[in-house]
Design goal:
Length: about 425
């Protein structure tokens, strides 16, 4: 088990540069096996999910190398193998191999995915999409077995709810299918646009990404000719903005696409956070007076569920009550008992997170049950007097690029002991 040790109570300053988006990267790596030629990705975040996906690629005889944020993937000698367990359960995005193996081989055997334990995460819409394209889907030995003996054929799929994962998985399966697939009620996240840009640059015909209707005309082959630069991670950016507002004495957060953070920026400005939004960076001024706000998460462009936890510690500094309603993952509250251990006046009441003004947090031993819960504890620890030990800190490493170096650059007193020493 990895631990992060934080000596809090210090004001931080300096600048931090945001890495490539986790949720783009973890879709684009599985998508790379749809290419007939080697693929090069740039601005890839140094996170645990990337290393786990590389291990899964190796199981399929796909060579990959990762240096200085450049990831090279050569799928030319790929072999169809079942991916029943092992790394599959270490992250959510392993389920994208269902769509991409199906698109490449017309068959996939993939175990049930892991990822953050933030409440029930069914995949019925993914399966509905695969079936609509002509695949047969069954469960065997804790794996999903998907086969399209007569090939995949484009079709219309109306998603019952807006799902990032189902939208991406259907794109991956449809991109080399025969005919046209139309996804309605599709998710609009910027990471889906990034995936489509990557695939279109290799010859795919995907139109309408970023709207609720996506149209995919299948093509027989994909060929990569240029490297693809991953977009900046809006969730990492929101986390550092929240940290900067909570403990900063003036912090510049660089490599940001501010439009991807509209709902988050509007909310922290409503709290009274003083920001200077520049072309591709945001300067956060030291804050004095903050007010409580109400946050309700919803699919993009709404307030991201992945940012409710990193925002929570900042709410403790407000002079009035804040309320969070996570409409996407109502059970995403495993960090709350840990924040209470640190002295936070916070509770879960009727499915809502109620955050009351808290004068001072105190360092103690807590556990990061998942990525964003871990980020929330990290910010709280930087605010707290004394030492905080975060157990299971490897969960934070699933999604935050070079986090220890970035925190050191801001003068934070943080150390990490664990296998993932990046
Ligand atoms: C790797 C990745 O990109 N992860 C993100 C992705 O997760 P993920 O793709 O798993 O999340 P979805 O967008 O699919 O989930 C949205 C909602 O739909 C429900 N649902 C989804 C699929 C399905 O078949 N059936 C169903 O009921 C889910 O339980 C959830 O309540 O989007 C989430 C919501 O923005 C983010 O928190 C995750 O960071
Ligand atoms: C929930 C998240 O990730 P995943 O879907 O990969 O578990 C997240 O990044 O906050």
């Amino acid at each position: 088990m990895a631990q992060m040790v934080i000596n809090g109570g210090k004001r931080l300053s300096g600048s931090v540069t945001i890495g490539g988006a986790k949720n783009s990267t973890v879709a684009i790596i599985p998508a790379a096996i749809l290419s007939d030629t080697p693929v090069v990705l740039d601005s890839v975040p140094q996170i645990k999910d990337v290393y786990n996906l590389m291990d899964m690629l190796a199981d399929m005889n796909v060579r990959s190398s990762f240096h200085d944020h450049v990831l090279k993937i050569d799928p030319t000698d790929i072999k169809l193998v079942p991916l029943p367990h092992g790394k599959v359960t270490s992250l959510r995005a392993s389920y994208y191999f269902m769509g991409s193996l199906l698109g490449r081989f017309g068959k996939a055997v993939v175990g049930f995915p892991g990822g953050d334990d933030i409440g029930p995460r069914p995949i019925d819409q993914h399966i509905k999409g695969f079936k609509a394209l002509g695949a047969q889907v069954k469960e065997h030995d804790n794996s999903i077995v998907i086969e399209a003996p007569h090939g995949l054929h484009g079709n219309r799929v109306f998603l019952d709810m807006v799902s990032v994962g189902a939208t991406i998985n259907i794109i991956l399966a449809a991109v080399r299918a025969q005919g046209t697939t139309i996804i309605e009620n599709a998710a609009k996240e910027p990471e889906i646009i990034d995936l489509a840009t990557f695939l279109n640059n290799m010859g795919a015909k995907i139109r309408g990404v970023g709207t609720q209707t996506i149209r995919i005309v299948g093509v027989p082959h994909l060929v990569s000719t240029n490297s693809h630069m991953i977009i900046p991670d809006r969730i990492e950016a929101g986390t550092y903005l929240s940290l900067a507002a909570a403990v900063g004495d003036g912090i510049l957060v660089k490599n940001i696409i501010a439009e991807h953070l509209d709902a988050f920026l509007a909310k922290i400005q409503e709290m009274g956070v003083n920001l200077d939004v520049r072309e591709d960076s945001i300067f956060v001024y030291p804050n004095s007076q903050l007010s409580g706000v109400k946050v309700k998460t919803s699919p993009y462009p709404g307030f991201a569920t992945d940012l409710q936890q990193p925002l929570t510690p900042l709410m403790l500094l407000a002079d009035s009550r804040s309320i969070i309603v996570d409409a996407i993952y109502p059970k995403r509250t495993r960090h709350i008992p840990e924040l209470i251990k640190m002295g936070a006046a916070i509770k879960v009441l009727d499915g809502q997170i109620v955050v009351d003004p808290t004068k001072q947090l105190a360092g103690t031993e807590v556990t990061a049950e998942e990525i964003r819960g871990g980020a929330s504890l990290l910010i709280a620890a930087l605010m707290a007097q004394g030492t905080t030990v975060i157990n299971q800190a490897e969960n934070i490493m699933r999604g935050y690029d070079c986090i220890i170096d970035k925190l050191h650059a801001l003068q934070a007193d943080v150390s990490y002991s664990g296998k993932e020493s990046f």
